[in-house]
Amino acid sequence: MPARRSTAATLLTIAVAGAALAGCSKKDDAASSDAVKVTASDSACEVAKTSFPAGAVELSVQNQGSKSTEVYVYAAGDKIVTERENIGPGTTVSIHAEIKAGEYEIACKPGMTGDGIRQKITVTGAAAPAAKADPRLAAAVEAYRKYAQEQADATIPVVTQFAEAVKAGDAEKAKSLFAASRVGWERTEPIAESFGDIDPKTDTREDGLEAGQQWTGWHKIEKSLWADGAITDDDKKLADQLVTDLKDWQSRIAKAEITPTSMANGAKELLDEVSKNKITGEEDRYSHTDLSDFAANVDGAEKAYELLKPVAAEKDAALAKTLDAEFAAIKVLLGKYKQGEAYTSYDKITQPERKAFSDAVNSLGEPLSKLAAAVVTG
Amino acid sequence: MDAETAETTAPDTATDQAAPTRRAVIGWAGAGLALGAAAAGSVAAATMHEAAPAAAPGIDSTVDIPFYGDHQAGIATPVQDRLHFAAFDVITKDREALVKMLKEWTKAAAAMTAAREVGAGATGGLPEAPPDDTGEALGLPASRLTLTVGFGPTLFEKDGEDRFGIKAKRPEALVDLPKFPGDRLEANRTGGDICVQACADDPQVAVHAIRNLARIGMGVVNVRWSQLGFGKTSSTTPEAQTPRNLMGFKDGTHNIAGTDAKSLADHVWVAPGDGQDWMTGGSYLVARRIRMTIETWDRTPLKEQEDIFGRSKLEGAPVGKQKERDTPDLSAMKEDAHVRLAHPDSNNGLMILRRGFSFTDGTDGLGRLDAGLFFLAYQRDTRKAFVPLQSKLAANDALNEYITHVGSGHFACPPGVRKPGEWWGQALFG
What we know:
The complex is a heterodimer of chains A (about 375) and B (about 425).
Chain A: H1 6-13, H2 18-21, E1 36-40, E2 45-47, E3 51-53, E4 55-63, E5 69-75, E6 79-87, E7 92-99, E8 102-108, E9 117-124, H3 135-167, H4 171-187, H5 189-194, H6 199-202, H7 218-228, H8 233-252, H9 260-278, H10 290-315, H11 317-335, E10 338-339, E11 342-343, H12 351-368, H13 371-376
Helix pairs in contact in A: 1-9, 3-4, 3-8, 3-10, 4-7, 4-10, 7-8, 9-10, 9-12, 10-11, 11-12
Chain B: H1 3-7, H2 13-16, E1 32-33, H3 37-47, E2 82-90, H4 95-112, E3 146-151, H5 153-156, E4 194-200, H6 203-216, E5 221-232, E6 256-257, H7 261-268, E7 283-292, H8 294-298, H9 302-309, H10 338-342, E8 353-354, E9 357-363, E10 369-379, H11 386-396, E11 403-413, H12 426-429
């Protein structure tokens, strides 16, 4: 999981209205006149307007405090609509987001911790039409939702088997199912992360815990299986909890907010995940099944790309050509480490081999970062 | 927000700054890459850097160094204060992809050396797209940034393979460097198909340049190794105070000055008829990461330190002389003194243009400074310059007890890009 679970959610909601926002050429991150001013300090979070129309919204955040701050826009249930971290003292930044009508909270977090100082806001009316409706893009979104649903549906039986093995104290069987139980999740992770509350329960690593947070999910059980060599009674409860949480995930995909932009950026995010956590072996540090997650991330990214490709290739043929080649190359590289359904244990991967993976991820991730713009512009 | 408004706002601050200037202004004043006496010693000398004061007289840090010219900037240019050097490996087999990248690099280099942003800029693109320019140099002047490209032996031929159809164009002077006695070269600090030397008076500007080139190159090249440097160890500006290396000695007192056209022609620039035509006007670069065993050096008595160098520590005067620039009496020095071995008079007048920097990459895990000299030397023909010099130094130099060569690279730096539209490597690939 990412260090910051909010990222994907941001991507899912940011500016579908690419065309409308395109071309901001400002250098200073200063706000345009329609921006909603947010004045943050160490003890206050003042929002100039608490009601504004739906659509492309710009928040101009001025940090007058002495500490760096973060600003979040939360929908009900603290679902992150957009956020900006690390706003230094004395600086002003602009945050752009596509916000639908509804009730929200804006939170400033001086010192970048805690729940923040909150202010309720109301976003009114219907959003201005976002991207020009290209029926192919609408079809791509629905096809991607279907794919995500299939991945979740296929995950539940496997994770249930995994949980049963844990509860039966059968460590060997549980170990054999661990990587497989994660594949569907890893393929579609940006969607899961967009829900905000599920990912911290299922996919947090020990170092990602916040103060007071109980460690639950895959990686806690992973540690017990591989590092501690003992399944505790607590683990057995956590196994059930994991199934419950993933069923929650499965049930919410139908309502997930998916846009062509979020699909494209989600694909990029998957490569970022690989780059940040898998290349280093940090993701599955006890089981060393990182390459399985890596391959699943690439699969999911490719799926999103393939669905967007008809439109993307029309607008940027060279980009599509590059992406075709780089996806092919990285799959060839991964294929060298696949034995049956399993991949080589990551602790057996040498430093030069890790460098080769890193190069392949950079070679794919860089052009993939241009996909969203290629899809929404034109 | 109002998209229309946003689209038309604010001028490009970075672009507004720092217009390129005339090359003449550059201030050869001090230009002189260290080569000379000590210089020759250079290699060794190199070994010992000479650290230079921040702003040498006659150098105006606000005047940009022209990117276009007969020779690449960053060689005879008065040495800047900071370095970021990167060696890249080409990871594609596609010659066209490589050529395309070199063209993009050239454009980006021309922009960055004039304090302009890369591509559509750091904020000028689509909000849905990552910015073309990474942005950390916004608002900063060019800080005399120069970007100098070179091609390594493995670009021409690797494991017997003519990778890009340029094997026949490999210059004879671009030899595989021999193993010198005492070399302890580390694979992850050695070699490379392409190098870029970024020098600037502001480290952020130099790092920004390498970072953006590396990003543009993704899918075509990857960074094999890179090195940051500070405190230039050789000045190309003789009027300026000679810099000190991390051993505390002035070194490279007698480097080639950037204004010394004759020495540059004789010793630095490849001349017509020297070999491959595409290299005419270029130069060969040897880069060596030379680790100093700082802790043991610091326990060495002053007299011994001075004997090892052949110069006094405070003034930098040759043994038996009063002033730094007094003509050395080499015979008064110990036979294994660094300056004696490296001096042009001991080497048939041989000189190289040194442009090295000190480095300190933190500590080495054993609590020792990972520090030394990142030696950079330009020459007309490496076979007649660095190779014989270093062969001699590696075998005899008293300084070897305190230094170890741990990284190495050899690159053919083509002549300059003369005008917009031309690109790095055009004569080689074109």
